[in-house]
Amino acid sequence: FTEIAEAESEFLKESAFSAVNFSNEKAEINLPVHRAVMSRAIILCLKYLGLSRDWEKSHVDGVLSLQHNENGSKITLPKGITAIKEYDKIVFYREKVKSESEHPFKVGKTLIDGVTVSVTQVSKPINYKDGFYVDGDKIPKDTVIRYKRDGDKFTKFGGGTKSLNDHLTDKKIPLRVRDELLVLASGNDVLAIFGVAVSNKLKIDENTSIIYKLN
Known about the structure:
By secondary structure, this protein is α+β, with helices and mostly antiparallel strands. It has helices spanning 2-19, 35-48, 57-66, 164-170, 175-178; strands at residues 20-23, 26-30, 74-77, 81-86, 89-94, 103-104, 108-112, 115-122, 132-135, 144-147, 153-155, 161-163, 182-186, 189-193, 197-198, 211-214. A hairpin with a 3-residue loop joins strand 3 (74-77) and strand 4 (81-86).
């Protein structure tokens, strides 16, 4: 009986590892997962993020309940860990403390909370597949680099302005990722979302003389 129990335990352990993806400072569980395996997978994620001893059954139960909640539902766990439902997976991560300051737009590199934003001037022709490009002549003088905010609006290519949050929802950008996005903005008018999209207002055309690449 002991041998059988050990074999079953080893099988559940291997199944839990197979259900989890570890990367950088986050862990993901791909759904659906059987409850017996899911509990073990949750504990693996907590331990990966440094919660090796202080977790309780209530923490595991809280994460288990996320499986049946709507997308974007999340719970706060000890040691600053958050678990969030993202479509067909549950992601464990630590929320970053973001700077509320604004950085004036400039050519060169700007360091924001450990992330380097690079703006370089380039010449035609350009390869749109290797980055995001904007018309430098169309950038307002009050443009800054900052995190996205409530009330921000975005005009997509081809026209049509909507709230930035609605645009990111349309593109299925997870809530966790949205909160960490840096944008190029003039007031509440978002002109570019770094790594995601460029507004139609900065679109390059036949009259463009200055081109900037955003990274």
